[in-house]
Fold:
Amino acid sequence: MLKKYTIRDIANLAGVSKGTVDRVLHHRGKVSETALKKVNDILDKIDFKPNLIAKNLKNNKVYRICVLLPDPKKDVYWEPCISGINTVISELGAFGVNIETVLFNPTQTKSFLDANAQIQRSMPDAVLLVPLFFKEALIVMETYEALGIKVSTFNNRIASEAAKSFIGQDLFQSGRVGAKLLQSLVNEGDIAILHVSEKYKNAVFMQEKEKGFISFFNDLDSPNYNLLKHKLKDLDFETSLKNFIAEHPHLKGIFVTTSKTHQVATIIQKLTPKKIALVGYDLLTENIAYLKKGTIDFLIHQHPKQQAYLGLKLLVEHFIFEKEIPTQLLLPIDIINSENITLSARD
Structure:
């Protein structure tokens, strides 16, 4: 095992007093050039690293980090994130850091803005947030930067200099993966991109998936496929989807850009005797049930628990271990079918 050097050890090796070593380590008080060089030479030789946890506790410094998350009661996709946050609290919460989770209604921009205002008034050291609403997220992140609060994001990326880090998938590439999966299932005909229960113009994550999906078929340059786009709202979901399918008798495949794939599967199962290939996102209980039945062919797993866990862990380790926060951490794009769902559902 490597020797753990004390200030006394360093002082003896450098031939100076313990007080001199303490002043060098903590950058306080006056130290002669000769003594400074002696101490730094020894520090370099032994690769000395201070005990940062002990240092934080000694200084009575408690860091505060807020996690801003869509309410899982409104959208169960976010439920695993709570588990990820709790894991970080269990692992690192004792080392001079307080972690608070703040929830907002994912269907209301006002709720998102109000939750951010609440966090900003409390002045934490950092915030980890899901920038669900593009325009509003840009505004609040600029405010965080002005207040000197570090901001990391997860799940969907926002192009803002205020965001120091992003944890999640490459959503453009995710869309291309979805397109490749449908192309492997369908030889020709109409293929639809369905956006469910979101305001498309303010939802960058759906736009990026759509761009990736379209780019794949543009690169394919095949006359066999015709791409369609349709938005579905909760209020008239069933009627709108039934009408859309009726209007497109050559519809062979559907790509759903959100976790609401099961809602589409319910209608398809009722309405059509013929098979329409269906690819969507996320390991919700309802999605898994339709995947096992064969109504959904593939799901793309976005690892929400891992996103929240890693995003928060990186912030905590930055404060207590002085680790650099990476500008981005891209997670794998996992393809789930009926054969590997049992293993994948454990994540």
